[in-house]
UniProtKB/TrEMBL annotation:
It comes from Paenibacillus lactis. Pfam families: YhfT (PF10797). The chain crosses the membrane at residues 6-25, 46-63, 69-88, 95-117, 137-154, 161-178, 190-210, 236-257, 288-311, 318-336, 365-393, 405-427. This is YhfT family protein. It comes from the Bacteria. The keyword Chloroplast does not apply. Keywords: Membrane, Transmembrane, Transmembrane helix. The keyword Plastid does not apply.
Length: 431
């Protein structure tokens, strides 16, 4: 009951915030919302845009990954409430209706996912176990994104250096764990190889970005031009705090996760590693979320996404909710100082887009490999054939399905096809 109430509450609050233009989850929508708030775009156009930008990601990305780990990827919920909130006109009754529908959507996602998983388990060919392989390459591949971001923003040479040092750090941690070199009171300490590699890569990225320093104070565009928009975000901080608290509490219960990497780790019972990955991802996204929030006056319903790490490391849901709300409050209060910092270090501000691009590319590759492995585990031989064909035909058709979704959706399609073959007597699952 608590889990369902948390998702219903999260759906109500986030759909309401989207409707009022206070906060939206899709980074691409954030710069568009002010166009409607300031009268340059109709509400109908905004709703259609939100649907076009988010619906495919909900169906093809959020839900399949949620099924693979039996933990809800936050995109499944918040991209949906973006669509709901922005599709309704602003007004007392319509805003209330948007919030109510957001709550219904949250309940539908919670109970619907359970029903889908149970339905899959009843099929003659249960492909849930094979489907879980989708997340395996994601965890290892994720540590590449800082090196790729460096290569995109600075130079391929610097990217290669960061990649090699991060890879070396990973292997040193593997060696240390194997030999038990790090101990506390005689007890070996096991570190996360991928987590350490990620930290090393992020250290390189931040170091290179901070070398680009602006000495011309007249260029302080964020801090000086968007004071009113930062003030608007602070005005509505209380409702964003509620959203952050609900998200942190739900994460503490392992009900939701903020990204596919931490979701895969949490699904495998690697709580600490999942928390580290979640915090590293949040650090990487600060420049992008902060700069778009400052420039538009529209925040994110989970802030800079640190609330997920807070939820993972909290001892219980109540503490997670309180800390999550506090973290959102501090993030909003620090926006003005962040604007000055981003103006002072333009390399950090510019890194937001390169980080987003690199994460997207890494996930595209990792989820395609994971989808292929899952599909082949479900129906050996046919699985690789199906994913390869699905990917290439999707590209030839102009990419109607985003690349990140091809692996998970393809694996589901192979699973359904495998069940049809079993029913027709054309395939016998291995015992």
């Amino acid at each position: 009951m608590l889990e369902a109430l948390l998702l219903i509450g999260l759906g109500i609050v986030t759909a309401t915030m989207a409707n009022l233009g206070i906060a939206v989850f899709n980074d691409g929508l954030r710069p568009i919302v002010p166009e409607n708030l300031e009268g340059r775009m109709s509400r109908k156009e905004l709703g259609v845009t939100a649907f076009a930008m988010s619906f495919g990601l909900v169906i093809g990305y959020g839900i399949p990954i949620s099924i693979s780990g039996s933990i809800l990827l936050i995109h499944s919920i918040l991209l949906g409430t973006d669509i709901i909130g922005l599709s309704f006109k602003r007004g007392k009754l319509s805003t209330a209706a948007a919030g109510a529908l957001g709550g219904v959507y949250g309940a539908g996602i919670y109970f619907g996912l359970q029903a889908v998983v149970k339905a899959f388990e009843m099929l003659p060919l249960n492909f849930i176990d094979g489907f879980n392989k989708i997340g395996e390459p994601v965890v290892v591949s994720f540590m590449v994104f800082p090196a790729l971001a460096i290569a995109l923003q600075f130079s391929i040479k610097k990217g290669v250096i960061a990649f090699l040092v991060a890879a070396l750090a990973r292997q040193l941690v593997v060696f240390s764990n194997t030999k038990g070199l790090i101990q506390i009171d005689g007890t070996p300490v096991v570190l996360s190889p991928e987590g350490i590699a990620l930290i090393v890569g992020m250290a390189f990225l931040i170091t290179f970005a901070m070398k680009e320093k602006s000495e011309d104070q007249s260029l302080s565009t964020l801090a000086s031009m968007f004071t009113d928009r930062v003030t608007r975000i602070k005005k509505f901080s209380w409702i964003v705090m509620i959203s952050g608290g609900l998200a942190a509490a739900a994460t503490n219960l392992l009900l939701i996760a903020g990204d596919p990497i931490s979701l895969s780790l949490l699904a495998d019972g690697k709580i600490s590693e999942g928390g580290i990955a979640s915090l590293a991802k949040a650090i990487g996204f600060v420049p992008l979320i902060a700069s778009t929030a400052i420039a538009t006056g529209v925040f994110g319903p989970v802030g800079f996404t640190f609330v997920f790490g807070v939820g993972i490391f909290s001892p219980n849901p109540l503490v997670a909710a309180l800390l999550g709300a506090l973290v959102i409050f501090l993030e909003i209060q620090l926006l003005s100082k962040m604007a000055k910092f981003l103006d002072r270090y333009p390399g950090i501000r510019a890194s937001g887009e390169s980080i987003r691009t690199s994460m997207t590319r890494v996930l595209e590759v990792a989820l395609l490999i994971g989808g292929a492995n899952a599909a082949n585990a479900i129906v050996p031989g046919l699985g690789y054939f199906g994913i390869a064909g699905f990917y290439l035909l999707n590209e030839a058709a102009g990419r109607p399905i985003v690349r990140m979704a091809v692996g998970p959706v393809g694996a589901i399609a192979v699973g359904i096809l495998g069940n049809i073959l079993v029913l027709l007597g054309l395939y016998t699952p291995p015992q």
